[in-house]
Amino acid sequence: MENIASHAQRRTSETLVAVWLLMLTASILPDILFNEFLTLSLPNLLWIKLGLLLLAIGGSFIWDVLKPTRFFTIFLVLLLLIESLRAMILESPDWQGYFGGSSPTFTEWMLGNQLLRVGAALLMIGMLFIWRGKSGLVYVKPGRLHAEVQPIPLLGIKAGEITWARFGWLAALAIGAGTAVFLFANGTLQADALTDLLPLMPFDLLFAAMNAFAEEVSYRAVLLAPLKAVVSPHQAVVLTALFFGIAHFYGVPYGVLGVVMATILGWLLSKSMIETEGIFWPWVIHFVQDVLIFSFMALGFVVPGG
Q1: How many CB atoms lie within 10 A of CB 95?
Q2: Top-confidence residue, 42 or 232
């Protein structure tokens, strides 16, 4: 019995390592390493990633270690393909022609971008439904808004002390305030420029809502659903947080700092999604931050990717 238990534990550990390697393969970490640190251009890197992931899917039929990772890997492949298609459409002259051509305004460019992001998210939701029906959509529904926040020792939060109905708003305000301080400190915003933002605010709010929804679906709900049966909730939170963080290397803020900040945010959002079994609180927190970032982008005071 002891040998059987030891073997099962070793296989579980090996599966966990496999999940991490699959996630890092599908992330933009290989792109960052080749482009930024090795200064090498690999135009076929996407196909290399897809090839490795497809090999892992094939291997899951013959190797017990990979078997639990099969559906997680399938959704990584779908995510890569859909995101690649989205990028191709976004860069196509035909699509750009509908949204300001080669010199779009912020509103035109963002509308074209967010329509594709939401479209990609809806497509992924459809894939979840095909996979498991309504049970596959567990993290797409609003969720249990009054669920208890599980302990966060770093913040001094103990079990049963606070619910997401309260902590969600506090987290949104705290992250929003921190983001605002960072943007004011690192941007070039002039106080009188805030008046220029007022006409753009309705669009800013709309785009922030769309982006928060799209990213919560694509970077969290779609990955957490197949991870539920593979790794512990803690590991699922850390995995998706890092995947989300790496994806923001070319965002605002740019580089390693952006990855660290987005990973911390991703940890909180993934924790919220798992504990509430829904998208509402992650979306709210994400939305508040995006409103601030998009406001600075609209005024041209911060630029993605540097």
Answers
A1: 14
A2: 232
